[in-house]
Amino acid sequence: QVQLQESGPELVKPSETLSLTCTVSGGYISTYYWNWIRQPPGKGLEWIGSIFSSDITDYNPSLKSRVSISLDSSKKQFSLKLTSVTAADTAVYYCARRAGYSSSWPFDYWGQGTLVTVSS
Amino acid sequence: QSVLTQPPSVSAAPGQRVTISCAGSSSNIGYNSVSWYQQLPGTAPKLLIYESNKRPSGIPDRFSASKSGTSATLDITGLQTGDEADYYCGTSNSSLNAWVFGGGTKLTVL
User: Fold this and answer.
1) Are B35 and A106 in contact (CB < 8 Å)?
2) Which of A12, B17, B31, B65 has the fewest beta carbons under 10 Å from its own?
3) How far from chain centre, in Å, is Cα A94?
4) Residue pLDDT, tens place only, B63-104
């Protein structure tokens, strides 16, 4: 059974960098697309970006200038960095898996999510 | 606003049927498969439908979906109180080179 678990600081100060890690257990990491998705309180889902095989990344154009996703296959982890955060970045952050790049491949496994609050 | 448009809320009585729509464009739904996700209160989204009309193992056949042109529809029959949740459609948007979701629809089972 594949499991994903987010970890990282729950509180980040404005203008600083939000950093989260997703640990994958129960499955391979090398043949899947690994994603970050966020959900502001009371609002809908927003795809942040994805990574495949350590060097193939895609980012939401609206966040691209501030986002970086990396993959550490040896640790079965992938990470998110979001720079220059503001209160608008307060959200539950989910990590999720897709088995392929095309739209035929949905987000089939999700982490439980972690609430990150941006506040001084 | 979301790239994909869903009604904010729908409601129906237990045992009844409800339909949730998801409207897009030729850049997203018109060209790509749609997936649907169920988010129960306080939990992570769960895959409900993929490739526009296929159910993963374990999803009851009370849940079905279809796609026509630039719109998609999720149907839930035999409503149960446990179906109360937020439902999201999602697909790839070719012009944005990004994955997009609908704004979500809150289902209330009266």
Assistant:
1) yes
2) B17
3) 6
4) 999 999 999 999 999 999 999 999 999 999 988 889 999 999
